[in-house]
Amino acid sequence: MKYNKSYEGRTFEAYIEYLQTIKHKIPKALFDFISDPQRHDLGEKSLHDCRVEKIEYECVSKGNYQLSLILAGENRIFTVKCMNISQFHINQVNFGDLYKDLITYEVGVEQDTFKNDKIVFRAKFPFEKGVIEVFSEKMEIDEALQ
């Protein structure tokens, strides 16, 4: 599995080491979620093999945009909520089967195109063609059993 671009995609242990260096820059609940190995393996608590159910983008107030990504897993619905977005990228080469079977996801702190440190969420789908990348001030990941 590949992880955060700023850490050049290494092992899960290396990803955890990277997360320790940014722990103070992200909310505790987000850190607890993304540092849990069960969220990255092939089990039922993982986002692996999730499919995109919905992408919601809205203007909350002038200059304040929010994006919610709804992912359906084996027995859970995950909601990735990004607030105060500075930029996002969705590679939508072919919406057919491209946005099912999420391969990996990563969260980190990187500079956006404006050179500001932001929390970044990056999801990768089969064949490296499907990518969702969101840079924001605040991020939450919630789950509900289905």
The shape is globular
Q: What structural class do you assign from the helix and strand content? A: alpha+beta
**Straight-line distance between termini:** 27 Å
Q: Regions with pLDDT < 50 over 5+ consecutive residues? A: none
How many alpha or pi helices? 3
Oligomer: single chain
Q: Tell me what portion of residues adopts beta-strand conformation.
A: over 45%
* Biggest sheet character: 6 strands, antiparallel
How would you state the average pLDDT, rounded? 87
| Percent of residues in helices | 10-25%
What's the number of extended β-strand segments?
Answer: 6
Folded structure, characterized:
The chain is 15% helix and 46% strand. It has helices spanning 12-22, 28-34, 95-98; strands at 51-61, 64-72, 76-91, 104-111, 117-124, 131-145. The protein has a six-stranded antiparallel beta sheet. The protein is globular.
Describe the protein's topology.
Blueprint: H1 12-22, H2 28-34, E1 51-61, E2 64-72, E3 76-91, H3 95-98, E4 104-111, E5 117-124, E6 131-145
Antiparallel strand pairs: 1-2, 2-3, 3-6, 4-5, 5-6
In brief:
By secondary structure, the chain is an alpha+beta fold. The protein contains 3 helices and 6 strands; from the N terminus they run ααβββαβββ. Strands 1-2-3-6-5-4 form a 6-stranded antiparallel sheet.
Which descriptors apply to this entry?
146 residues; globular; 6-stranded antiparallel sheet; 3 helices; alpha+beta
